[in-house]
Amino acid sequence: MLVYPSGLDLSSSALRFLSGRLTALRRERGTRWRRLGTDRQALLVLAHLRCGHTYAQLATGFGISLSTVYRYVSKAVELLAGLAPDLAAAVRAASRKAFVILDGTLLPIDRIAADQPFYSGKHKRHGMNVQVLAHPAGRLLWASPALPGAVHDLRAAREHGIVDCLAGAGIRCWADKGYQGAGGTVRVPYRGRWEKLSSGQQTVNRAHAKIRALGEQAMATLKTWRLLRKLRCSTTRITSLVQAVLTLHLTCSSQG
Question: Choosing a second label site near 16 at 20 to 30 A (CA), which of 112, 143, 165, 166?
Fold first, then answer.
């Protein structure tokens, strides 16, 4: 296999943050020696998450075995996922905003047609449903645990307790028609064919669409971590990957 130098479109703060956490973990566990130092391990993990590089590619590039790559990635992802904010923390942060934007996204996975629980009729493909909260500027605030792609956005929002949590905090929320009937503080556009809506309803829907469009920026932010564009791992690991990415994104944003 050919090996060539490459680069990551991430700030050095992500590397410093992850390296520092890995160093602290090794000290806590009394680890004496590893094939790679924490800086190199952090770089390996970031290359996997940001660029979607496979274990085989990383093993060749860093001169280590496949099993070592798997162990390095697993430990780092577990560490990062444990640092991700939960819904309660995200709602506390959102309470300082005028409103939040709620939307769902499908993370594509490598599955066959027989895996019906993961098939999304809306997107016509297999994947995992992840709910996202964004603040008024479109920046990512929180991402939910992953559910099978067949789960509807409204059902997912209710299962995660998003609707009740936002209502309890009195935070206004803008969402699309998929959340019709959510209740609480969730605002959705008027339903019906455009030509059958009144001029006032059309005006409201236009304004609603402009606000909701900002939420697409949060979705795009999530997908800049290219591993999430096509996941080929076990579905049981996807929530940890999403939470790890969320932690790195929020860390980079706060230090940027």
Answer: 143
Q: How far apart are CA 202 and CA 166, in angstroms?
A: 26
Contact between 72 and 36 under an 8 Å Cβ cutoff? The reply is yes
Q: Would you say how long the chain is, in residues? A: 256
Question: What angle do the packed helices 66-83 and 38-51 form, to 10 degrees?
Answer: 80
What is the rounded distance in angstroms from the CA atom of residue 25 to the CA atom of residue 18?
Answer: 11
Task: Write the secondary structure of the chain as one string of H (helix), E (strand) and C (coil).
Answer: CCCCCCCCCCCHHHHHHHHHHHHHHHHHHCCCCCCCCHHHHHHHHHHHHHHCCCHHHHHHHHCCCHHHHHHHHHHHHHHHHHHCCCHHHHHHHHCCCCCEEEEEEEEEECCCCCCHHHEECCCCEEEEEEEEEECCCCCEEEECCCEECCCCHHHHHHHHCHHHHHHHHCCCEECCHHHCCCCCCEECCCCCCHHHCCHHHHHHHHHHHHHHHCHHHHHHHHHCCHHHHCECCCHHHHHHHHHHHHHHHHHHHHHC
How far apart, in whole angstroms, are the C-alpha atoms of residue 90 and residue 142?
A: 6
Burial of 32 per CB tally in 10 Å (0-12, 13-18, 19+): exposed
Per-residue pLDDT tens digits for 100-149: 999 999 999 987 655 678 888 888 889 999 999 998 888 999 999 999 99
The confidence score (pLDDT) of residue 113 equals 59
Q: Identify the bridge partners of residue 187 per DSSP, sorted by sequence position.
A: 174
